[in-house]
Specification:
The structure holds 2 protein chains of 2 kinds. Chain A has 10 helices and 14 strands. Chain A is α+β, with helices and mostly antiparallel strands. Helices cover 40% and strands 0% of the residues of chain B. The relative contact order of chain B is 0.11. The chains are: A alpha+beta, B mainly alpha.
Chain lengths: 354, 58
């Protein structure tokens, strides 16, 4: 196809030659050491991927540095995984150890492969999102600092574990299907500045932006009003009408923690994450309560799950009632679904334990 | 339960349908029951938690 200047280039142009040569012809892979994948093809060709943690929001210096490393050791070939790890694709086995040595010397974290906690996926947060509830990068950094030994494979875990952080309920960050998900929660509806809404905002598009139909016109003030019971605090209207609406609320914004989701098809069907902790207030810069809660969840899971059992599979085996007892978390009215299809989550049988 | 149902249900609405319409949380709150995990198969998976005005700081 002709090359254009919009969109990414065809991915085939970006593959290392050894992958192009053996495309669709890979036999197996092994993990020779934490953070390194060795893929072996039917033709006998081998490629190593070296996985390194990234903070996702990166500086240009850091990008230049990983590009230099890729130029030096892997003919310029690297890629980012779905959880924002960097993978250096090493075709020449002789250059594997020198790359690992240089990464170590430069304090890059090598790991995140196989039975471990991979990089934390996260969203923009206060850095540049209009409706952010929390600072996604700050929480991610604090969690990763605690979980380094799980990433590098120093601490062994029963299965892989994926952590994600999203700074509001719109969840740009894979939170609906991660083993542990931290989701920012607004608890108050947007405040309306009637004068600004009337003067600056386009009322029909603001009203139409609401996914639950909670906004209606207020003819008296020539502005809008929001029905509290219907608002799900997604911030859509704030994006359409930033001058007149304000959703960030330092007193009431915070995060919730969700568990047991996964994307993979292996073992059991993919699962949504489900509510474990409804609310923890924002506590920058280190979010101690959030990191403690995540550590608790990881430790209880690691101590109780069988080999190969992910968070969701483990909870399903022992039951949610045991999960709340083991993790010492209170079960509240917030855990009971009250949204669309809520009824499908209610228990209507006597199959429960105390 | 019967009294709560006879007070709130619409004509020919059974108690399960009423709980479905008003919510399990409303049902247990008005009956004075404590929420426990045994009441559900699994906790909620959507993040649209409803916070009452009493629960949030002014």
């Amino acid at each position: 196809m002709a090359r254009t200047d919009f969109g990414p280039p065809d991915f085939r142009e970006l593959l290392p030659p050894v992958i192009t040569k053996n495309y669709g012809n890979w036999k197996t892979h092994e993990i020779p050491r934490p953070g390194v994948l060795k893929h072996i093809s039917y033709s006998g060709d081998v490629i190593h991927s070296v996985r390194v943690a990234s903070p996702r929001l990166v500086s240009s210096d850091w990008m230049l540095d990983i590009c230099d490393l890729a130029d030096k050791f892997c003919e310029g070939y690297l890629r980012f995984t779905t959880r924002n790890n960097v993978e250096f694709l090493v075709s020449d086995e002789a250059r594997l150890q020198p790359l690992l040595d240089e990464l170590d010397a430069k304090d890059y974290l090598i790991g995140g492969v196989g039975l471990s906690i991979s990089n934390v996926v996260h969203t923009q947060g206060w850095i540049h999102c209009k409706s952010a509830v929390t600072d996604a990068s700050g929480i991610t950094k604090s969690i990763m600092d605690n979980m380094t030994d799980y990433f590098t494979g120093k601490v062994k875990v029963p299965s892989r574990l994926r952590i994600a952080v999203a700074c509001c309920v719109n969840m740009c960050g894979a939170c609906h299907c991660s083993d542990i998900a931290i989701v920012g929660i607004h608890r108050t509806i947007p405040r309306i500045n009637d004068e600004a809404v009337a003067r600056v905002c386009e009322l029909p598009s603001t009203i139409a932006s609401c996914p639950t139909g909670a906004i209606r016109p207020n003819p008296k003030t020539k502005s809008i009003e929001i029905k509290r019971e219907k608002c799900m605090m997604c911030g859509n209207c704030v994006v359409v009408c930033p001058a007149g609406l304000q959703i960030m609320d330092p007193l009431n914004d915070g995060v919730s923690i969700w568990v047991g989701g996964k994307v993979s098809n292996s073992g059991s069907a993919p699962k949504f994450s489900r509510l474990a902790i409804p609310f923890i207030p924002n506590e920058p810069p280190r979010w101690d309560k959030v990191t403690d809660a995540v550590t608790n969840l990881v430790e209880v899971w690691a101590a109780n799950a069988r080999s190969g059992e992910r968070m969701g599979a483990w909870i399903e085996r022992i039951g949610w009632e045991r999960f709340f007892t083991l993790t010492n978390l209170p079960f509240t009215d917030k855990h009971i679904d009250d949204f669309t299809y809520a009824q499908t989550t209610f228990r209507a049988t006597t199959q429960f334990k105390y | 339960m019967t009294e709560w149902w006879s007070e709130h249900a619409k004509n020919r609405e059974r108690i399960g349908e009423l709980i479905d319409r008003l919510g399990l949380v409303t049902f247990i709150t008005e009956l004075g029951l404590k929420p426990i995990p045994q009441m559900v198969n699994a906790p909620r998976s959507n993040p649209f938690i409803y916070w009452t005005t009493e629960e949030v700081n002014k």
